[in-house]
Amino acid sequence: MQDYKFLKNINFPSDLRKLSENNLQEVSNEVRKEMIDAVSETGGHLGAGLGVVELTVALHYVFDTPNDRLIWDVGHQTYPHKILTGRKSKIKTLRQGNGLSGFTKRSESEYDPFGAAHSSTSISSALGMAEASKLSNKLNNIIAVIGDGAISAGMAYEAMNNAGASKTKMIVILNDNDMSIAKPVGAMRTYLAKLLTGKIYFSLRETFRLITSAFSKRFSAKAGKAEDFLRSAVTGGTLFNSLGFYYVGPIDGHDLSTLIPILKNARDSKHQGPIMIHVKTQKGKGYSYAEKASDHYHGVSKFNVITGEQVKSGTNLPTYTKVFANTLVKHAERDSKVVGITAAMPGGTGMDIFAKDFPKRTFDVGIAEQHGVTFAAGLATEGYKPYVAIYSTFLQRAYDQVVHDVAIQSLPVRFIIDRAGLVGADGSTHAGSFDITYLSTLPNFIVMAPSDESELVKMINTSMIINDKPCAIRYPRGNGIGMELPSIDEKIEIGKGKIIQEGKQVCILSIGTRLEECKIAATELKNKGIESTIVDARFAKPLDQELILKCAREHEVMITVEEGSIGGFGSHVENLLSEKGIFDKGLKFRTMILPDIFIEQDSPKKMYDVAGLNASQISKKILDILFTKESIKVVKN
Ligand SMILES: Cc1ncc(C[n+]2csc(CCOP(=O)(O)OP(=O)(O)O)c2C)c(N)n1
Ligand SMILES: CC(=O)[C@@H](O)[C@H](O)COP(=O)(O)O
Ligand SMILES: [Mg+2]
């Protein structure tokens, strides 16, 4: 920690509130410096936090947090908030094992009244708190801060629809930096841009005072109407006004002399209903490299503060994401029906690569996973081959659309599920733990998981000819293992697994990229004289029943291994074996799955250690089964 003039004495917002308003810009500068310094060592979300430093300082200065509830949407912009709310000394533990979360987390601090990481939840949760506050006569303020990206999602509209009709006071700060992770998309973006270009009052202090005073002053009906007219003429905030919000803005979110009086007015206002304050900020503000970069350093690895250079990953192997994107491009060159869909994650899903060659066949729907899935279903009804590339964790949002709009109608939507399994620094909110489970339970679905990048290509090739039902291919974050890639003509038979090696006593049925750990486990067992068969199951649905039953009959022990929760591949195998009466014949069977806990952020390797899914844990499990050391714990009430 550097020798800061103000920050050294600020641990909590109460310390901040003792300062004069004139010192707050200096405080902001110090917070910004501290944040850059910390993220240069930890990596993480940089641009969004840099853009809200002044806003964070102003909010904690004006409002009585934590009694007043401050809810940050997504939570990736909360590093300045963490520095000012008792977590300064731990800021260099961000996103590491036993360290601070990269998002808001109720268990981490009373200043985080609502946990987040998935977007667009802030207005709903704030309205819930506001209604609770009203019911219990608490009279505290409830403030939600939501970005221009996050406000594009369906949930935000549902919340505004509800809030706008209520007579409950809450404050929504719309943090408009004209950025999502990539450039934001859609009509809302155009609308917000219009509000910004239409502004004329930035220099008109008198107009500004008139607007803000409307919160607290009592106007005669006539004067009120005139004020309303002036406000909307000046600000053009008609959409939000029409939705029932008292709209103010846009204002400069880096100018504390504007922010503080407006926030004070909103705080003291007797307005019964939601207030929206539209602030204009710059993502990456105050760090030249972030300001200039096209992504404004949304998410960075460790970097050199002086040069802005980020540390590259230690391998040149292509990521699964890239392998997917490059393969899809090749198919799209041949087949004009191939289209790609992303929900605001073009870079993360590889859709940016596809978009370069096929801009007209790429659809970025914004942070709108639900809409994206049903939109793809619509494309499928017209004979297109939609590839919906979504992170496993974000597809959770669209489960009903997957069931109702895709599976029931057996539409051939191809789900490309990235970030499956444990992802590391983003932690439990971003873990792709449940997709095998929630998709394999659905009739009409084919669910595949490649064990390496070559298998991924074959599965994409196969998906091209699945034209009568939906399918999903799930793979992890990060790099492949260096396999040579096959041609785009090489397919696999649907529902057929692959024997990797044959042994006698033990059969390991693996699905997905834990296969490498299974191979190491098998070598460890071999060193102890135990021969194992390894099967790459490839399909969680349909199961390769023939192969699984054969293996079950020919081995003493069978285990399944997957990077997924209960209810997935292992559960389906267990059900099959039970149905076929295999257990009656004495097979020793276990499933190795993600445990029934949310695993905290750490390196993926350590997270898999917690999950018990690394090689030594697989071999130990097998040895314990063979030599019956497993104990049955009976929990007494
Ligand atoms: C449901 C969901 N989909 C996608 C994401 C990934 N994501 C994280 S931040 C972000 C952009 C948010 O943009 P905005 O709200 O404008 O915040 P900014 O980063 O610009 O401050 C996206 C798409 C997410 N967190 N949640
Ligand atoms: C905040 C958020 O949801 C994204 O920025 C996410 O952290 C990206 O994860 P990847 O780094 O795996 O693309
Ligand atoms: Mg934004």
Automatic annotation (TrEMBL):
One of its GO terms (biological process) is terpenoid biosynthetic process. Binds 1 thiamine pyrophosphate per subunit. Thiamine diphosphate binds at H76, A117, H118, S119, G149, A150, N177, Y287, E369. It catalyses: D-glyceraldehyde 3-phosphate + pyruvate + H(+) = 1-deoxy-D-xylulose 5-phosphate + CO2. It is an enzyme of class 2 (transferase). GO terms for molecular function: 1-deoxy-D-xylulose-5-phosphate synthase activity; magnesium ion binding; thiamine pyrophosphate binding. Its EC number is 2.2.1.7. Gene3D superfamilies: 3.40.50.920, 3.40.50.970. The keyword Methyltransferase does not apply. Catalyzes the acyloin condensation reaction between C atoms 2 and 3 of pyruvate and glyceraldehyde 3-phosphate to yield 1-deoxy-D-xylulose-5-phosphate (DXP). Belongs to the transketolase family. DXPS subfamily. This is 1-deoxy-D-xylulose-5-phosphate synthase. The gene is dxs.
